[in-house]
Design goal:
It comes from Glycocaulis abyssi. By secondary structure, the protein is mainly alpha-helical. The chain has a single domain, classed as Fumarate reductase/succinate dehydrogenase, transmembrane subunit (3 helical TM bundles of succinate and fumarate reductases, Up-down Bundle). Helix content is about 80%, strand content about 0%. The termini are far apart.
């Protein structure tokens, strides 16, 4: 009595892919990380609002600034990638288009993370 699928769904093998829970938890964990990291990052960034480039670069290049920036941007880009993945999977119906967009989503998120890493390392030297 536990299987509520129609006979056609059973024949086609339609049902849970068994990966939705992990994705859901990952998105919630990254959201919790953002709730903690983003206010800290934005407050530190706002304190440098009137400062010049040298002072802002010195803060991002400092150990605390570099770690906070990398943690905040890593959580933000990972959360962005997960969220866009859900949108693509839910609203794009053509398999080829869906596959291309999912690959592009991953490459853009990775490329942005590499740009952030390079920027922070360049300022930290």
């Amino acid at each position: 009595m536990g299987d509520f699928r129609t006979p056609l769904a059973r024949v086609r093998g339609l049902g849970s892919a068994k990966s939705g829970t992990g994705h859901f938890i990952a998105q919630r964990v990254s959201a919790i990380a953002l709730v903690v990291l983003m206010p800290l990052f934005l407050v530190k960034l706002a304190k440098n609002a009137g400062a010049g480039y040298a002072e802002a670069a010195a803060w991002v290049g400092s150990p605390l600034g570099a770690i906070l920036t990398l943690l905040a941007m890593t959580a933000a880009l990972y959360h962005m990638r997960l969220g866009l993945q859900v949108v693509i999977e839910d609203y794009i119906y053509r398999p080829a288009t869906k596959a291309i967009l999912l690959i592009l989503n991953t490459f853009v998120a990775a490329g942005l993370w590499i740009a952030v890493l390079y920027s922070v390392l360049a300022l930290a030297r």
